[in-house]
Model the fold of this input.
Amino acid sequence: MQQQRYAVIGAGPSGLSAARALQKAGIAFDGYEASRGVGGLWDIENPRSTMYESAHLISSRTTTQFTEFPMDSTADYPGHRTLMRYFRDYADRFALTEHFRFDTRVTGLEQTDDGGWMLRAEGPASAIEARYDGVILANGTLAEPNVPTFRGEFTGELLHTSAYKSAGQLTGKRVLIIGAGNSGCDIAVDAVHHAASVDMSVRRGYYFVPRYLFGRPSDTLNQGRPLPARIKQFVDKRVLRAFTGDPVRFGFPEPDYRLYESHPIVNTLILNHLGQGDLAVRPDVERFDGRTVHFRDGTSGEYDMVLLATGYTLDYPFVSRDALNWRGFSPRLFLNVFPPSFNGLYVMGMIEASGIGWQGRYEQAELIAEYLSALQNRPAQAQEFRRRVASQPWPDLTGGYHYLGLERMSYYVNKDAYRRAVREARESLRAHPRGAADRAGARRAASRPSKRTPA
Ligand SMILES: Cc1cc2nc3c(=O)[nH]c(=O)nc-3n(C[C@H](O)[C@H](O)[C@H](O)COP(=O)(O)OP(=O)(O)OC[C@H]3O[C@@H](n4cnc5c(N)ncnc54)[C@H](O)[C@@H]3O)c2cc1C
Done:
């Protein structure tokens, strides 16, 4: 049988994971990367990167790194330049770099009559057209800014955080940051040291997790044996209260949701600065009027710059929405990877989760590689996998948490539930005679209530 060939779009952590897993499985592939090299958004020079000079890991090193390639750093939360070196070293160590065409942007994917995909790309010198048996999309989820509309017009500088690179951009300005996600809080801390004044406008309350608890990186505690959602929420809420106090004291609204039902903010410097009076929390914006911003509580403020820390929107601009089974804010995919039609597209990295790390992304890649191996060498097993996906409830990936119905939460998963489901799916595809593991995986999937059923 002729060997199948696949394309990988993107050489960030997800694309590198895909490359490594395909390489290990002996599957032929070509990689396409729009930027100059590997590393994805961790390369601050990548024109699409949303990195900024002060950025460090938010999850800690040991929970984030690839298991087979520990980081050559003793820092618990290394900075983006260290991480950039890490990805270059990883790609070199496993000879992945040579599989990618750099400075080459994929511009189109169309299904061919024989079930493959025609890929079109713009290279540094010429256009490329090539047919593949399937395509792995690893073009990132944090590149396309989500820019809300506001009433009125702001006549100062209006920037999305994707355009924020360094604190010099804030020097001497009266800054309003809208949104208090992880990037918004990092930038607020930068702003405190450079801006003339800093306010932060928020719509809802947040939970703030310190980087260290009991002297250890906080995400390294309670690993391996996850507590049931309600117990973890009960215990962790009290631990956070003991360590960080009540954010309401600092001006934040009381969260109208439970802990872990939205992405927590791993930043307590922001609370220190609030306590020092270096910045203030303001309510949601009502409207702009020149340089004046009116808030919902009837107050207003004057600003030179408004920074929208309003997150990102998923974007796969080179392929039709139907092919990815879009529903609402995001594609609806089995395990956030496989379109239910199994049309030869595979999505990597479309997971938002607290602490899933690059190893979690690598496990997605292993699952894809296992499926592609089965397609080539054990078609009946691949067919059985597809049959189960079509006929049984999809695993519950929430871990029992009721996530907020926000755009950025539409593809959010609980890392433990997700990794378990990926492991089971991979196990069911493995090259051993179909039997015990297969049936056990199917039984477990069928016995769990589904939050995500086939469309
Ligand atoms: C400030 C910040 C801190 C973060 N901290 C953490 C953390 O602590 N832990 C964690 O796990 N995650 C963190 N993240 C999330 C981050 O998204 C992931 O770590 C990781 O970068 C995702 O990898 P990816 O390969 O899916 O996407 P990306 O890193 O975005 O890479 C996508 C790649 O695809 C390329 N590409 C895009 N379109 C095309 C195209 N059409 N053709 C060819 N190439 C294309 C891009 O150039 C890019 O190189 C952080 C993100 C930010 C912004």
User: Anything to note?
Assistant: The pocket of flavin-adenine dinucleotide is lined by residues 9-15, 32-35, 40-42, 46, 48, 50-51, 55, 57-59, 64, 105-106, 138-140, 142-143, 183, 318, 349, 357 (CB under 6 Å). Confidence is low (pLDDT under 50) at residues 434-455. Residues 357-377 form the longest helix (21 residues). The first strand starts at residue 5 and ends at 9.
